[in-house]
Design brief:
With 106 residues, the protein is an all-alpha fold. It is 82% helix and 0% strand. The protein has 3 helices and no strands. It has helices spanning 5-42, 45-69, 74-97. The protein is elongated, with a radius of gyration of 18 Å.
Length: 106
């Protein structure tokens, strides 16, 4: 059988692209937290709920992409955890600022 090195490199490039997509989704979730905060404070609950829904969807997808097509790392795991933390905390802080929830749990 003849070895085809270009076939192996194409598979690596494809999988690294999909793994990068997972990191991009995490970065998009991280970038969304100021918008979620602002929309909650402004009372634009439909936009905030949609953004939170997209954030939850990307959280579900990004880890699967990296585990399946990339190389999971502790740095990537921390990036994901901090993105999740900032999105969730920004929502709860916005609820407190808007007077929807009490600030004591924060």
């Amino acid at each position: 059988m003849i070895a085809m090195p270009w076939a192996a490199s194409a598979a690596v490039q494809s999988s690294s692209w999909l793994a990068s997509l997972g990191h991009l989704l995490t970065g998009m979730r991280l970038a969304s937290f100021p918008f979620i905060f602002g929309w909650i404070v402004e009372g634009r609950s439909e936009l905030a709920a949609a953004a939170m829904g997209v954030a939850m969807l990307t959280d579900w997808i990004d880890g699967s992409l990296v585990r399946r097509f990339g190389r999971p790392s502790s740095a990537g795991a921390w990036f994901d955890v901090w993105a999740d933390f900032l999105v969730i905390m920004s929502a709860f802080i916005a609820f407190a600022v808007a007077g929807i929830l009490s600030a004591w749990p924060l």
